[in-house]
Specification:
The protein is mainly beta and 680 residues long. It is built from one helix and 51 strands.
Length: 680
Amino acid sequence: VEPSAEHPATRLVVRWALNPQGHGVLALRSLDESFFTPAVGTEYPVGYTEGDDEVVYVGTGTNLTGAGRLPGTAYHYKLFSVNYGYYSAGVAASGRTRMPQARNPGGGAPEQPAAVRLGDTNLTFGVEAWGTVETNCGRARVVVDTDPDVSDGAYGSYTGYTNAAHRQAGSPQFTSTGAWYWAMQVDYGSPYGAGFWHGSNTAIWGEMVATPVATLTVTVSPLPDPASVSAVTNALNPTGAVDLAWTPAESYPVMIVRGTDTLPGAPAGGHAYTNGEPCGGGIVIYPAAGGTSFTDSNIVEGTTYYYRFFSENHTYYSPGAVFVQFGGTGDITGPVFFGFNVDGAVFTNVCLSGGLTVTGLIQDVGSGVYGGASNRYALYRGGVELASGEFTTRPEVNGAARETPEPVAVTLPLDLVGYTGTYQLVGSGWDFQPGAPREGTNTFVFQVVAPPDYLYRMQITFNYDGDEPLRDFPALVVFNESLPEFRYGQFASPSGGDLRFSDASGLQWLNFEPEQWNTNGNSYVWVRLPELSRTNNTIWAYWGSPRETNPPACTTNGATWAENYRAVFHLHATNGGTARDSTTNLQHGALQNMEAVDWRAGLIGNALLFDGGDEFVSNTLAAPWEGPFTVSLWVESGAAGQPAGTALFAHHAEGFQIDCDGAVPGSYRYAGLNTTLIGP
């Protein structure tokens, strides 16, 4: 019993061979693997039912195609030979229909907007060819949420039932900044239903799932504030009117809130304000609309007013960090921090192996940002301070007032943000205006959560008995199916994308880089161990998560190799002209005169075979070669007795090399100012 090649989601094909006597066949189908026993002397027609058993075939053929089956459902069959009302004991077989298939446009990335702003709605999302269910591609809608289980998220409107190869649908509204997950839900109509989801970023055909779990994400950015805001006395009514002007940001409508003797607060997202309506302790004097100027003619002479400008997008608003003061003296507020990428965000700690880089903006239009060391941050988890210090990116000392906000940033290491919980990032800065210094602080809350449950894990122990602990040590882990706890079929990603490593506590994720993934043999993975010692010599490997099928950034960004590694060349490619450097230095080498036969299997994955003549890898390795350093190679001589001076590694500018020793066949030596034998 197997799915039909043409309609694998709704048809099963049952095949059999007749018994040696060529007797006819009666076939039953059931959903629960229990079958009634045909009564002797009774002939049953197709369509006869007893309980949930149904007679689906009577005849002398050797196959049956059952249409109209539900996708992703197991069906059970039992076949009997029939001879004039007498039946054999019967043989049973089972099969399952597949889920409908989907892929992304052109086999590549899913279709999603290049940029999403707070308040955006009805944005176009899409994937390629849902896969037909009995010629019906169904109808689709986009579902978005701030966590991977999008079932309780916001649902867009269904498209019509069409057979379009490329399916697009409009999104619901994005009502907060930060990371959002999205998926497509498909309704195939009666009798198949609507419980089919596609939320994966796989680039090939794949089955849809019955659970609304998404790995597709978009980042929702804050709205930009209006620029070039000003407030000047009205020439015709200098004591009773103020002329306001601004430049809209990206054509967004602008709303202006006026406060009397105090700076008004921010509007509530999702609410459409009308003229004169209270807002944040002030009143709305200019509801969201187009335009670049407005005259406020309802003021009282001698009163200090503060005008705060907001961009508006479908009843959601920008931070409103731009404002002007009219009348009175002094600046009532310190610097304002806003637009932080962590504000309201949710991070999975498996994605923070390289730490968390916090970015945001600071502005103080009233008098100017002091800048420098006064711009600081403090990090809390659960109300307990973890760290504090200066922003590493910040305005210059004594920066003057600017209409354009200035960036601030700091990178928080993994040992601070790798634990699950609620974090508070507090930005603070001083405005040292003459006679009245003002401090401005803003707090941004974000979450760090554990990754989805992994179905499988395995403890790995390293046999290390050295006296000194090794720091940031790249350990080689070799996987194959001779390990009793390990099977390639357990992975959610065929290429091992759901593989992860943690320290012995399971609380700190480790950087790693696969060198070769081979489901038919050995797979080699380098794992960076923060410390390896006699008493700290175990880690955990995890796999089998359908939500985490994309490799983390550390597998390609060089984070597996500590800063003191100048270059690491695995030489594991199977073609091309580049020897890639796996470190963050990206000092890739160029293959010279290599031939197709030179790519070979090596001790660790693939390797290169050099002929001892004009085949080599060239590289500048620009960093100065001063002080102690180490050169490490895995090498095997093609034959003993090679000519002396056949180099394995040479640095011509510094005048040394590691080469074959012709006097001691099969041995190697260091040759520089002095020559030292380094053994076979």
